[in-house]
Amino acid sequence: MLKPRPTATRELVSLDGIWRFAVDDEAEAAPWSGPLPGTLEAAVPASYNDLFADQAIRDHVGRVWYQRDVRVPRGWAGERIFVRLDAATHAGSVYIGDALVAEHTGGHTPFEADITGHVEAGEAFRLTVAVDNRLTDTTLPPGTVTVAQDGCRAQTYLHDFYNYAGLTRSVWLHSAPALRIADVTVVTGVDGTAGTVDYTVTTTGDADVVVRVLDAAGAEVATGAGPAGRLRIADATLWRPGAPYLYDLVAEVHDGGTVVDSYPQPFGVRTVEVRGTEFLINGEPFYFTGFGKHEDTPVRGRGHDDAYLVHDFQLLDWAGANSFRTSHYPYAEEVLDFADRHGIVVIDETAAVGLNLAVTGGLTGQGAQPTFSPETFGEQTRAAHAAHLRELVARDKNHASVVMWCLANEPASHEPGAREYFEPLISLARELDPTRPVTIATVIFATSENDRIADLIDVVCLNRYYGWYVATGDLAAAEAYLEQDLRAWAGKFAKPVIMTEYGADTLPGAHSIWDAPWTEEYQQALLAMYHRVFDRVPEVVGEHVWNFADFQTSNGIHRVEGNRKGVFTRDRRPKAAARALRERWRRIGGRKPTSEETQ
């Protein structure tokens, strides 16, 4: 789905701001046929959970309602008119007046509706959106809803971050011609000093298509005609980590010599390849340094915030990080646009976190059900997973910063049924995008000996917590466990290995002269231990600390005001480990440290 952009043939109006808000106490209530009752108002984009002082709203399970009045610009007569939601977590229903015009399941990818037949240029209409935060065994992420004796619903889920919900990203009203560009796909390559650009332009009807490539200065460097083809950019400037360069593919629909629609698609010329145990960008070995992150900030919750976007990227640059993973769901597209423009590499992840019932069994002591079965996560879950993957690739396929698809975080890849569940999804990912590697972030229960899917993926990504959940406080034992584990994976699969999670909960201001967990010194020492091991194992091509910043989790006595594994606090103040990472990452500069550098 094309991101709305203002052009000579398209216009765009932001609907962000303050909306009327109400909680739906009846799960099957009919849509409101007038103004919402009550006086509550909510900010968009933002999660609603932390906006209000009422505990019942924060803990609400089910639908909530957003509403506002919208006026269509009078100049849009004769145009197609759309309403687009960048996300509604986790399911959304859109009403124009009393008419249902769109429904969507999946809380992190966009959807839209053509509302031309329901509105008029220059006139106002009532826009109402129902947002449902319930998670089930056929949603991503999964969860379970129970009903207590008092009739109140309760939500449980298997992931370790708070189930923020609402209109967490922007809402737009936009116009486009009836005969228009519906989709653009750009795939780049390198041929000597030239860049190759394979493009496909889909239109809503039969049309003459013309494409032009503009460089960063706006100069035309290549042209073509037809809905698909290959262009060549002489002496192309490549998009590189830390040194980004973007072109625009301007696609035009011509009718009788007149341009009836125009759409610019930014892209970078670059290649991605896994060769042996190396991860290559533009044919050069790349070493990932950075973090797993979350879209999580005080008050706004999981709501896109441009100020935090800019500041977080400044902190990535300050720390010497060159990459991050969108753990554990697709981030706002503005984040990827920013990464494209600033040369930060992204591992793009689906919302498939929690496909591991062994975790729940371990926490409760009751034993675990099989994760993959008709009664747990079966064909319906996989179908939802496939739909989510299709939407993710369709949205993010043209981003130069995105170099790999991560299909799940910590699934039970060691259990029976894992291969049957994941093999069709991995094949689908390669079918949707043959140009990018595919991976899965592997849980510690899955070893090199019992994992059932590692041979199917391109890069081995491991989440490991030796020194924290295993060998707590014993870094000598943890170091031995870690090295043995890494060498076993590298020896068996001969693929690049990225440590996609490692870290320790840390309270800022807690100090000790001993290896005392939760102290700033222990976090530093644990990370330093991991780095020593990474530098000794040639197959390791990346390190993503868990986490960039502290983040909110569900209620639980094993979490003190959320997950504290961030090297920055939730409000982005550095812990001691942040400076240690800065020293290491700025020194190695995105390449595997040499033996001399590790002495």
From TrEMBL:
Keywords: Glycosidase, Hydrolase. InterPro entries: Beta-gal/glucu_dom_sf (IPR036156), Galactose-bd-like_sf (IPR008979), GH (IPR017853), Glyco_hydro_2 (IPR006101), Glyco_hydro_2_cat (IPR006103), Glyco_hydro_2_CS (IPR023230), Glyco_hydro_2_N (IPR006104), Ig-like_fold (IPR013783). Residues 180-270 form the Glycoside hydrolase family 2 immunoglobulin-like beta-sandwich domain. Its EC number is 3.2.1.31. Residues 272-588 form the Glycoside hydrolase family 2 catalytic domain. Belongs to the glycosyl hydrolase 2 family. It is an enzyme of class 3 (hydrolase). It comes from Nocardiopsis sediminis. GO terms for molecular function: beta-glucuronidase activity. Residues 13-177 form the Glycosyl hydrolases family 2 sugar binding domain. This is Beta-glucuronidase. PROSITE patterns: GLYCOSYL_HYDROL_F2_1.
